């Protein structure tokens, strides 16, 4: 089988107008697993790497991110829009992908799609097992002759060369509510080094205090729905330059403003739970809405069904540490 042709055939489906992309993405994953030929079900591939700013997930979990189908398709679409925009402005492009997993799955479709253009890819991955699997996959696909730099480093510390600043930076190193993984530290490190016109993908991630309630849809059918009350944290170039992001030079610690949300009695009348809601703008109109992906599933915080007579005050602050998260205190 000509693997390049097969990769092109499978991934070109992502750019067609078809009603459902699930079978194309499943086919893509099966193809990558068979090409890489790694037995990534082996126990060592399950191990996460613990760092001071959060975890980097194990190789198998990173490969499985592909199964989050709408996420995978929308990221690829968003990156395509960004590449098309940039390629018309410049003769050559540099794309940095921080946290590739074993397949660089969000970028791989473009290496052949834009083979006639002058694009350099920098593939950055911290996990040595994912990194080895990645190099192996690229080699087996016969893509190693393209302009690809492989870097086995920590993206929270990586230094971008001044003479070769990326035009597009992609990183999907997150879970819902920006729990546990290192997305915020990675973007902070890369955003402070990037040019003002560098596109970051995702372009914006927001966390909001929300509530969930049940609504009777049809007789005997209860439908859970979520209501967003107050945006309390944002990751974007604009947010990084705002007063909500505070870098402490003495401790070299990145801190974030504490937010207070007051939920009035009227707002709570039907609410059953307090949740954290995550929304992601991948790029321009490509957005991941609530519950479209595991990344935007609301995170349960507290049952408030017995507590509707008083307004609630909720304090929240994003905190980076070995387990990054939005810390929440309901007063
Ligand atoms: C959620 S997976 C995503 C895999 C793939 N990019 C995708 O979207 O399907 C995140 C990947 O980023 C890597 N990673 C996490 N923290 C990192 C860091 N600080 N530097 C470089 N890579 C990191 C993990 O090892 C993992 O392979």
Radius of gyration: 21 Å
* Total of DSSP H or I helical runs spanning 4+ residues: 9
Structural class: alpha/beta
SSE order = HHEEHHEHEHEEHEEEHEEEHEEEEE
Most strands sheet: 5 strands, parallel
Q: Indicate the low-confidence ranges by residue numbers.
A: none
CATH 2nd-level architecture: 3-Layer(aba) Sandwich
* CATH topology term: Rossmann fold
The figure for the number of domains is 1
CATH superfamily: Vaccinia Virus protein VP39
* Ions, cofactors and other bound molecules: S-adenosylmethionine
Distance between the termini: 62 Å
Quick take:
The protein is 26% helix and 31% strand.
Structure overview:
The chain is built from nine helices and 17 strands. By secondary structure, the protein is α/β, with parallel strands linked by helices. It has a single domain (3-330), classed as Vaccinia Virus protein VP39 (Rossmann fold, 3-Layer(aba) Sandwich). Helix 1 (3-12) runs antiparallel to helix 2 (22-36). It is globular and about 65 Å long. S-adenosylmethionine binds next to loops. S-adenosylmethionine (SAM) binds at residues 56-57, 62, 65-66, 98-101, 105-106, 124-127, 130, 154-156, 172-173, 182, 186.
How do the strands and helices of this protein lay out in sequence?
Layout: H1 3-12, H2 22-36, E1 49-51, E2 54-56, H3 59-64, H4 69-87, E3 92-98, H5 108-113, E4 118-124, H6 128-140, E5 148-151, E6 168-170, H7 183-191, E7 199-201, E8 204-216, E9 222-235, H8 237-240, E10 245-248, E11 253-256, E12 259-263, H9 265-268, E13 273-283, E14 286-288, E15 299-303, E16 312-319, E17 325-330
Parallel strand pairs: 3-4, 3-6, 4-5, 6-7
Antiparallel strand pairs: 1-2, 8-9, 8-13, 10-11, 12-16, 13-14, 13-15, 16-17
Bound molecules: S-adenosylmethionine (SAM).
S-adenosylmethionine binds next to loops.
């Amino acid at each position: 089988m000509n693997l390049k042709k097969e990769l092109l055939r499978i991934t070109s489906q992502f750019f067609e107008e078809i009603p459902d992309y699930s079978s194309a993405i499943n086919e893509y994953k099966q193809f990558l697993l068979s090409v890489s030929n790694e037995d990534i079900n082996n126990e060592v591939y399950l191990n996460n790497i613990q760092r001071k700013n959060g975890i980097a997930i194990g190789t198998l979990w990173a490969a499985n991110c592909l199964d989050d189908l709408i996420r995978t398709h929308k990221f690829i679409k968003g990156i395509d829009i960004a590449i098309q925009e940039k390629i018309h402005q410049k003769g050559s492009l540099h794309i940095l992908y921080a946290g590739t997993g074993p397949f660089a799955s969000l970028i791989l479709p473009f290496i052949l799609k834009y083979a006639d253009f002058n694009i350099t890819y920098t593939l950055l991955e911290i996990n040595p097992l994912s990194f080895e699997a990645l190099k192996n996959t690229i080699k087996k696909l016969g893509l190693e002759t393209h302009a690809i730099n492989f870097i086995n480093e920590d993206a929270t510390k990586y230094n971008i060369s001044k003479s070769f600043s990326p035009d597009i930076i992609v990183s999907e190193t997150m879970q819902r509510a920006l729990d546990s993984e290192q997305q915020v530290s990675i973007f902070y490190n890369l955003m402070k080094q990037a040019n003002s016109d560098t596109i970051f993908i995702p372009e914006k991630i927001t966390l909001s205090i929300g509530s969930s309630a049940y609504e009777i849809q049809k007789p005997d059918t209860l439908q859970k729905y979520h209501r967003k009350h107050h945006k309390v944290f944002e990751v974007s170039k604009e947010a990084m330059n705002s007063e909500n992001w505070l870098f402490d030079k003495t401790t070299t610690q990145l801190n974030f403003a504490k937010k207070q949300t007051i939920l009035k009695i009227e707002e709570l009348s039907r609410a059953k739970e307090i949740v954290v809601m995550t929304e992601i703008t991948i790029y321009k109109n490509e957005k991941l809405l609530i519950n479209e992906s595991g990344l935007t599933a609301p995170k349960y915080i507290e049952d408030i069904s017995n507590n509707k007579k008083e307004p609630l005050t909720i304090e929240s602050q994003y905190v980076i540490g070995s387990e990054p998260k939005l810390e929440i205190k309901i007063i």
